[in-house]
UniProtKB/TrEMBL annotation:
PANTHER family: NMRA-LIKE DOMAIN-CONTAINING PROTEIN, QUINONE OXIDOREDUCTASE 2. InterPro entries: NAD(P)-bd_dom_sf (IPR036291), NmrA-like (IPR008030), NmrA-type_oxidoreductase (IPR052718). The lineage of its organism: Bacteria, Pseudomonadati, Bacteroidota, Sphingobacteriia, Sphingobacteriales. It comes from the Bacteria. Residues 3-284 form the NmrA-like domain. It holds the Pfam family NmrA. This is NAD(P)H dehydrogenase (Quinone).
Length: 291
């Protein structure tokens, strides 16, 4: 199987993949790349080997990638700089002769500048293009939108207010839990036959916020309805109650993408990879809201 390195190891997804690999008795082959070693005590206590690497520092990446057979490449979170960061990682992986790169991309319908989330998509599109052109063995995991963002979008008081207030129209999305995405990553890292393949990492059913309101009503016994304001009404209302502009625009942009069907890609490849049924949205909401 060889040596496995997880980048972004102190982030939510990186940690989840590491925990999944530990549960599969892969600790001996496992390393975690972090930018700041002093912030990785939790990983150190689990027996995970730590290496220092910075997405902005090509030379540090080449050093971190030495002897790596399988690299789990978590896409960068710095939207302004991640295209360059992704180039650094791919170039360093090639220089270090990494055996297999597993890249965490994302699902999308539109691949040009007309997408509401073009600013997010471009770095992923570039990374996929560079990986395929590099000659490296690869697997691309096109992640659905995290189910884990729903409590952030809807708010932790949605059951008390009884209203989901988001400009997503009737758009549907195959919301998938981060833990199931991590399980898919671990399956690719520890399995065979995934070379030079692209997988859609999504559950088999897509849901609108009307569907989500109905699920919350069923689970909680409280009436929850979905108000689907236009973007102008949404942004104006949130500004009036003091929500920061950056948060408003982030939510509005992704909701516009949902409304346009950018994430409406349910499928069965996730289930096939992890060898079980993924967590359903109903199960996720029950756990997230402790119902």
């Amino acid at each position: 199987m060889g040596n496995i390195l997880i980048t972004g190891a102190t982030g939510h997804l990186g940690k989840a993949v590491i925990n999944e690999l530990i549960s599969r008795d892969q600790t001996a082959q496992l390393s975690a790349m972090v930018r700041d070693l002093s912030k990785a005590h939790e990983l150190d206590t689990k027996g995970v080997r730590l290496v220092q690497g910075d997405y902005n520092d090509h030379d540090s990446l080449v050093a971190a990638f030495q002897g790596v057979d399988k690299l789990y490449f978590v896409s960068g979170s710095d939207v302004a700089h991640r295209s360059r960061q992704h180039e650094n990682i791919i170039q360093a992986a090639k220089a270090a002769k990494v055996g297999h790169v597993i890249y965490t991309s994302f699902q999308r319908k539109t691949e040009d500048g007309s997408s509401p989330i073009a600013f997010v998509a471009q770095a992923h599109l570039l990374a996929e293009k560079l990986i395929k052109a590099s000659g490296l063995t690869y697997t691309i995991l096109k992640h659905a939108l995290y189910a884990d963002v729903l409590p952030m979008f809807m708010g932790d008081q949605v059951l008390n207010t009884g209203t989901i207030f988001l400009p997503a129209g009737e758009g549907k999305c195959a919301y998938t839990s981060r833990l199931d995405m991590a399980a898919a990553g671990a399956a690719v890292l520890t399995g065979t036959g995934h070379e030079n393949k692209t997988y859609e990492i999504a559950v088999a059913e897509a849901y609108s916020f009307y569907d989500i309101a109905a699920l919350l009503t069923e689970l909680s016994g409280k009436q929850v309805h979905y108000a689907a304001p236009d973007v102008e009404t949404f942004t104006g209302t949130l500004k009036q109650v003091g929500v920061p502009d950056e948060a408003i625009m982030g939510a509005a942009t992704f909701c516009q993408a949902i409304a346009q069907g950018e994430f409406d890609f349910p499928g069965t490849e996730l289930e096939q990879l992890i060898g079980r049924k993924p967590e359903t949205l109903k199960e996720f909401l029950k756990n997230a809201y402790q119902l």
